[in-house]
């Protein structure tokens, strides 16, 4: 059952435009200081401090800077950005405009997931309305010299294009492949200009923080993971859908709210996230403990963990851009290993080698995909030893 | 409006472009930073990569996708190192140091990652080292040894996945040996700006393909072979005719003649373990005789011939434009680099009239051997096999052009690369550097320094100028340029210009008397020339001409498809790098300086050829039939 009721969410209680108006009365430095005080960290998964990203981009001198909204939402089990774009698009645009003000950008781009093409005309309409209302275009809200407009660009259906540098390559019309870093997009981004790439949700929290104050946000959650967070919940639980919870919530509490108690495990953070066994349900969802971009997949007691791992590995094998060796070849080897385990043909020795390979992939891959693709495999092998070891060659 | 000549017009992704200092946005600055690598401390300019720092202090970090000539890709990940404070390992080739850091290059994690990366590559690498032309000169093989690979921990393919592509006259692609380092792609799209190669598909299905995955022989590949020189493995190689050449040598009815070009002679020592920059011209003559070639000639002879023909053609074009006031295509472009010729045919077919109709030295020689030489020695041309030792893979395509049969036979039967020649010599059990020296054979033995410098970018221009100055001005080149070294056209700068005012003119020499009555019309004129190397620079020149810029005012432009000119050709020893090419260039210029005769028009063999055989002179009927050719507009999408 899908139970997404957005009416009680914080986003419903903040009126669009209010935060923007307030923010545009502030200097760019004051805006960034406010974000610093709120402790807001990126909602796209990596949890990079938003104020720091903006500060870095603001510091670079360039007439042309870009604000990019990452609406590629490709992580399996994630659909919160779609809900935000549908119900709170104006708040999100407010957030992008505040970001533009903070870093001195005049161009905005929404990189919209290919599958969300149906939202395109709706969003275009919103943008037209905003231009009419003076919220976009020349001298936004009458502020002389602050020009900002947003265009929509469609993704091409590749998960990797959600990675910010691959996203930029894709915007430039190239194959969506991550770049070397440094230089970072804040310095050399779209067409070589300073660019901030933020998640849909990150932008949407910004006007809320401006409206309700940094302290309001900072006081929610843990010290290092402040504020509220949107979660996309799916899998073996009673309530599916998008939920708003405070950061720092324990997995157990979260499961209670979605009727998912009794689960055997929770995959937090989508395919690239980690698999948390029931014995660790006391752990918290927070950047310093169990991080997630919002995806919570509940795994019921009857699931075969090897099958779960197989699903995730199949996903990565499809989605790796194939640029770097550890990820390109490593995912295939891990999947092969799972198949060998399923057939009872994987030796303990080889399994250990595969775990080491997983470590190599985490350490030596070029981007977040390869660095996190072994996570599910490794956490399942280590946390569900009984289920896995029993299937090695020697055990049979 | 003229275009900015140093501008990067590359069509490659920003992340894959040649950056002056490696990494875009983080160019090397004056700021100094301290780096500690394996407990050794060193201070370097901010922006230097870890790899460069390590090199400076003698610490070896393995690389595969990195190449000195190319932009940084950071894809193989073999160069990973541990940087203190970083969660993941970092690639030394792609990490610019901008603040003090501590680096460790061989920790457990690093060693494990490198082993895994090699094992992963080998798990897809189908090929046997003993049956591979890169055996003992392969970066993958060398690293497998260096990292002690003693078994295939992630398996090894038992059968090929791809078909070997032999469709090109010049290159062979065996993608089963490809490790996806993408050096070829970056070479083709970024260094050469041709853009034949790209990556297709994703993940473990990704592979390097030509446009539309067509056979290489059917795409816009210009056969420059620069990708071969930069491939770390045996996945790319030249189309090797050594079997056929041996068969011709073994056939007693065949008279096998070989011409050797200056660049292979300057480079071949590298295949025998010598440092770059040791020419083995005369040792090679002895070795080739040992191998069984019947006659050994110097391509410099036909290089000199080319200068006479091409120089005369230029003077005739200028006469037509300035005196006869007729429409004529200027600037005249050189045509001796077959990679460049094919590039023009594909990308700028509307400029074909600008190409000199003179054949390249290789092809002129072939035509002369199967006519003049055959008559002189009373050998039936059908029994003559002409082989050309060239630094070039495009020469293989050139000698197979259907129009290159003006002697009535295939003018040049086989083009051999420097690498293939070295292979034949070693197969014959000959230690080339230890060979005694011996001379070329008559009648084409005497050469000039002008022919030698054809091997370096700017060389054709310099040789042409030496001749044109003397023929037109009636003075010695030495009066204008010390030792007749025309320094402004030398060097490795992408595009070089020279303007030469013709202050006074001399009498028309006998050779040209029936073509042009006097030089009066050239008095006071300024001859403007340029030289460009690498097709990326050629593209800049062509775009500038189209835009009516400085290049469009030139009278004569030398183009070489390969960076550095022929000495950096696609058939030269592997590896290549700016310093290796500089060493080869030095060898070539020092050889030039050692010649007594250094001007093409003074070459006695050439003079004799015009008196005895090409009796109606340069650009006359006989020469037009044998030594000149035409071109094929190809366009971007046709073969
Ligand atoms: C493989 C991969 C896929 C990603 N996909 C997305 C995505 O779909 N949406 C998103 O917002 N961030 C995604 N990210 C994270 C982005 O790279 C980037 O960190 C994020 O957009 C930054 O925004 P934030 O700081 O607001 O979270 C992905 C990262 C990786 C490595
Ligand atoms: S880690 Fe995977 S997705 Fe990322 S660059 Fe490497 S191959 Fe591409
Ligand atoms: S490419 Fe290298 S490793 Fe592969 S077969 Fe040839 S020599 Fe051996
Ligand atoms: S030979 Fe030259 S043009 Fe052809 S693929 Fe290689 S680099 Fe490109
Ligand atoms: S063909 Fe050679 S250069 Fe090209 S990607 Fe493969 S291994 Fe690298
Ligand atoms: S050499 Fe550095 S990543 Fe390939």
Spell out the key features of this protein:
heterodimer, A: 396 residues, alpha/beta, Rossmann fold, de novo design (two linked rop proteins), 3 domains, five-stranded mixed β-sheet, four-stranded parallel β-sheet, 16 helices, 43% helix, B: Alpha-Beta Plaits, Fe-only Hydrogenase (Larger Subunit), Chain L, domain 3, 20 helices, binds iron/sulfur cluster, binds FE2/S2 (inorganic) cluster
Q: Would you kindly provide a brief summary of this structure?
A:
With 396 residues, chain A is of the alpha/beta class. Helix content of chain A is 43%, strand content 13%. In chain B, a hairpin with a 6-residue loop joins β3 and β4 (90-91).
What's the helix and strand layout?
The complex is a heterodimer of chains A (396) and B (639).
Chain A (H helix, E strand, L loop, with lengths): L9 H4 L4 H7 L3 H11 L11 H10 L6 E6 L8 H8 L1 H15 L3 E6 L7 H13 L16 E6 L9 H8 L23 E5 H13 L1 H5 L9 E8 L5 E6 L4 H7 L7 E4 L5 E4 L17 E5 L5 H15 L5 H18 L5 H17 L3 H16 L1 H5 L7
Parallel strand pairs in A: 1-2, 1-4, 2-3, 5-9
Antiparallel strand pairs in A: 5-6, 7-8, 7-9
Helix pairs in contact in A: 2-6, 2-9, 3-4, 3-6, 6-9, 12-13, 12-15, 13-14, 13-15, 14-15
Chain B lengths: L31 E6 L2 E6 L4 H7 L23 E4 L6 E2 L9 E4 L3 H15 L16 H8 L24 E3 L9 H9 L5 E4 L6 E4 L15 H5 L5 E3 L3 H9 L4 E6 L1 H6 L13 H11 L3 E4 H24 L9 E2 L4 H10 L13 H17 L6 E7 L3 H6 L14 E4 H10 L21 H4 L6 H15 L3 H4 L14 E7 L24 E8 L1 H12 L9 E5 L17 H17 L9 H9 L8 H7 L12
Parallel strand pairs in B: 1-5, 10-11, 10-13, 12-17, 13-14, 16-17
Antiparallel strand pairs in B: 1-2, 3-4, 3-5, 6-9, 7-8, 15-16
Helix pairs in contact in B: 9-11, 9-15
Q: How does this model look, in words?
A:
The complex is a heterodimer of chains A (396) and B (639). Chain A has helices spanning 10-13, 18-24, 28-38, 50-59, 80-87, 89-103, 120-132, 164-171, 200-212, 214-218, 251-257, 305-319, 325-342, 348-364, 368-383, 385-389; strands at residues 66-71, 107-112, 149-154, 195-199, 228-235, 241-246, 265-268, 274-277, 295-299. Chain A is of the alpha/beta class. Chain A has three domains: 6-218, Rossmann fold (3-Layer(aba) Sandwich); 228-299, Ubiquitin-like (UB roll), CATH 3.10.20.600; 305-393, de novo design (two linked rop proteins). In chain A, the strands form two sheets. A five-stranded mixed β-sheet of chain A has the order 6-5-9-7-8. A four-stranded parallel β-sheet of chain A has the order 3-2-1-4, with helices on both faces. In chain A, helix 3 (28-38) packs across helix 6 (89-103) and helix 12 runs antiparallel to helix 15. Chain B has 639 residues and is α/β, with parallel strands linked by helices. Among the domains of chain B are: 14-106, Ubiquitin-like (UB roll); 120-238, 2-Layer Sandwich (Alpha-Beta Plaits), CATH 3.30.70.20; 306-358 and 447-572 and 593-627, Fe-only Hydrogenase (Larger Subunit), Chain L, domain 3 (3-Layer(aba) Sandwich), CATH 3.40.950.10. Chain B has helices at residues 50-56, 108-122, 139-146, 183-191, 226-230, 242-250, 262-267, 281-291, 299-322, 338-347, 361-377, 394-399, 418-427, 449-452, 459-473, 477-480, 535-546, 578-594, 604-612, 621-627, and strands spanning 32-37, 40-45, 80-83, 90-91, 101-104, 171-173, 197-200, 207-210, 236-238, 255-260, 295-298, 332-333, 384-390, 414-417, 495-501, 526-533, 556-560. In chain B, strand 1 and strand 2 form a beta hairpin. The two termini of chain B are 33 Å apart. Mean pLDDT of chain B is 93; it is low at 18-23. Chain A binds chain B through residues 158, 160, 165, 169, 172, 174-175, 177, 179-180, 182-183, 187-188, 191-192, 317-326, 328-333, 353, 356-357, 359-360, 362-366, 371, and chain B through 13-15, 23-26, 72-78, 80, 88-89, 91, 94-96, 98, 109, 112-113, 116-117, 120-121, 123-124, 153-154, 179-180, 199, 201-206. The structure holds flavin mononucleotide, iron/sulfur cluster (4 copies) and FE2/S2 (inorganic) cluster. Residues 171, 187-188, 192, 194, 196-197, 221-227 of chain B line the site of one iron/sulfur cluster.
């Amino acid at each position: 059952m899908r139970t997404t009721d957005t009416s009680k969410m914080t986003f419903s209680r903040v009126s669009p435009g209010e935060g923007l108006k307030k923010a545009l009365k502030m200097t760019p430095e004051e805006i960034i200081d406010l974000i610093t005080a709120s402790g807001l960290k990126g909602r796209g998964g990596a949890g990079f401090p938003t104020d720091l990203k903006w500060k870095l981009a603001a510091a670079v001198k360039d007439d042309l800077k870009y604000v990019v909204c990452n609406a590629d939402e490709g992580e399996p089990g994630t659909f919160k950005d779609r809900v935000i774009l549908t119900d709170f698009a104006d708040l999100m645009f407010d957030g992008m405009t505040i970001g533009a003000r903070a870093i001195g950008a005049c161009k905005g781009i929404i990189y919209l997931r290919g599958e969300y093409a149906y939202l395109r005309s709706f969003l275009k309409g919103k943008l037209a309305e905003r231009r009419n209302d003076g919220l976009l275009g020349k001298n936004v809200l009458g502020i002389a010299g602050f020009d900002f407009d947003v265009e929509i660009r469609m993704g091409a259906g590749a998960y990797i294009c959600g990675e910010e540098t691959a996203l930029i390559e894709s915007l430039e019309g190239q194959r969506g492949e991550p770049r070397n870093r440094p230089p970072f997009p804040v310095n050399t981004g779209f067409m070589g200009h300073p660019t901030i790439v933020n998640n849909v949700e990150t932008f949407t929290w910004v006007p809320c923080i401006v409206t309700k104050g940094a302290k309001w946000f900072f006081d929610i959650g843990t010290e290092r993971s402040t504020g509220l967070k949107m979660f996309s919940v799916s899998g073996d639980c009673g309530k599916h859908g998008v939920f708003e919870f405070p950061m720092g919530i324990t997995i157990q509490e979260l499961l209670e709210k979605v009727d998912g108690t009794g689960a055997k495990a929770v995959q937090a953070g989508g395919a690239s996230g980690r698999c948390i066994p029931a014995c660790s349900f006391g752990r918290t969802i927070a950047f310093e403990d169990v991080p997630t971009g919002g995806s919570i997949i509940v795994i019921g007691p009857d699931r075969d963990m090897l099958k779960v791992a197989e699903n995730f590995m199949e996903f990565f094998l499809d989605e790796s851009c194939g640029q770097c060796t550890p990820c390109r070849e490593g995912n295939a080897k891990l999947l092969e290993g799972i198949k060998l385990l399923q057939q009872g043909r994987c030796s303990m020795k080889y399994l250990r080698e595969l775990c080491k390979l997983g470590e190599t992939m985490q350490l030596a891959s070029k981007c977040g995909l390869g660095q996190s693709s072994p996570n599910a495999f490794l956490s399942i092998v280590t946390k569900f030893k009984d289920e896995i070891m029993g299937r090695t060659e020697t055990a049979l | 409006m003229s275009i900015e000549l140093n501008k990067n017009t590359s069509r490659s992704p920003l992340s894959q472009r040649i950056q002056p200092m490696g990494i875009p946005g983080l160019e090397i600055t004056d700021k100094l930073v301290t780096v500690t690598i394996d407990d050794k401390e060193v201070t370097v300019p901010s922006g230097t990569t870890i790899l460069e720092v390590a090199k400076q202090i003698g610490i070896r970090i393995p690389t595969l996708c990195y190449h000195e000539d190319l932009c940084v890709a950071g894809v193989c990940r073999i160069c990973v190192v541990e940087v203190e404070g970083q969660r993941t390992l970092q690639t030394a080739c792609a990490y610019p140091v901008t603040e003090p850091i501590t680096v460790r290059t061989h920790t457990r994690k690093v060693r494990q990652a490198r082993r895994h990366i090699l094992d992963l590559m080998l798990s897809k690498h189908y090929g046997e080292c003993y049956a591979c032309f890169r055996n003992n000169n392969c970066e993958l093989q060398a690293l497998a040894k260096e990292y002690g690979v003693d078994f295939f921990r992630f398996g090894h393919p038992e059968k090929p996945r791809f078909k070997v592509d032999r469709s090109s006259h010049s290159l062979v692609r065996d993608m089963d040996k490809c490790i996806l380092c993408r050096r070829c792609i970056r070479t083709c799209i970024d260094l050469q700006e041709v853009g034949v190669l790209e990556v297709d598909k994703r993940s473990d299905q990704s592979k390097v393909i030509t446009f539309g995955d067509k056979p290489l022989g059917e795409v816009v590949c210009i056969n420059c072979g620069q990708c071969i020189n930069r491939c770390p493995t045996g996945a790319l190689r030249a189309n090797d005719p050594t079997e056929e050449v041996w068969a011709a040598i073994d056939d007693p009815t065949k008279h096998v003649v070989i011409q050797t070009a200056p660049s292979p002679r300057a480079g071949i020592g590298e295949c025998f373990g010598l440092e770059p920059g040791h020419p083995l011209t005369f040792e090679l003559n002895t070795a080739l005789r040992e191998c069984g070639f019947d006659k050994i000639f110097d391509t410099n002879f036909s290089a000199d011939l080319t200068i006479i023909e091409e120089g005369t053609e230029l003077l005739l074009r200028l006469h037509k434009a300035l005196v006869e006031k007729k429409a004529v295509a200027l600037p005249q472009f050189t045509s001796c680099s077959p990679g460049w010729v094919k590039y023009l045919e594909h990308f700028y077919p509307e400029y074909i009239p600008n190409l000199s109709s003179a054949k390249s030295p290789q092809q002129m020689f072939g035509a002369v051997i199967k006519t003049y030489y055959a008559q002189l020695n009373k050998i039936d041309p059908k029994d003559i096999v002409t082989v050309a030792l060239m630094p070039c893979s495009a020469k293989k395509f050139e000698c197979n052009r259907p129009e290159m049969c003006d002697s009535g036979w295939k003018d040049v039967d086989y083009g051999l690369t420097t690498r293939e020649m070295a292979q034949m010599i070693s197969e014959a059990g000959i230690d080339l550097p230890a060979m005694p020296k011996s001379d070329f054979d008559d009648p084409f033995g005497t050469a000039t320094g002008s022919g030698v410098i054809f091997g370096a970018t700017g060389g054709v221009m310099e040789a042409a100028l030496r001749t044109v100055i003397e023929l037109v001005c009636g003075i010695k080149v030495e009066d204008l340029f010390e030792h007749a070294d025309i320094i402004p056209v030398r060097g490795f700068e992408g595009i070089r210009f020279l303007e030469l005012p013709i202050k006074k003119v001399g009498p028309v020499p006998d050779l040209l008397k029936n073509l042009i009555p006097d030089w009066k019309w050239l008095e006071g004129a300024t001859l403007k020339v340029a030289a460009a190397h690498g097709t990326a620079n050629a593209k800049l020149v062509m775009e500038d001409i189209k835009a009516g810029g400085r290049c469009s005012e030139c009278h004569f432009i030398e183009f070489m498809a390969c960076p550095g000119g022929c000495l950096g050709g696609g058939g030269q020893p592997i590896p290549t790098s700016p310093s290796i090419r500089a060493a080869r260039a030095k060898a070539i210029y020092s050889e030039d300086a050692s010649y007594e005769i250094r001007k093409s028009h003074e070459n006695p063999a050439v003079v004799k050829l015009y008196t005895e055989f090409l009796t109606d002179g340069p650009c006359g009927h006989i020469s037009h039939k044998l030594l000149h050719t035409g071109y094929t507009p190809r366009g971007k999408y046709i073969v």
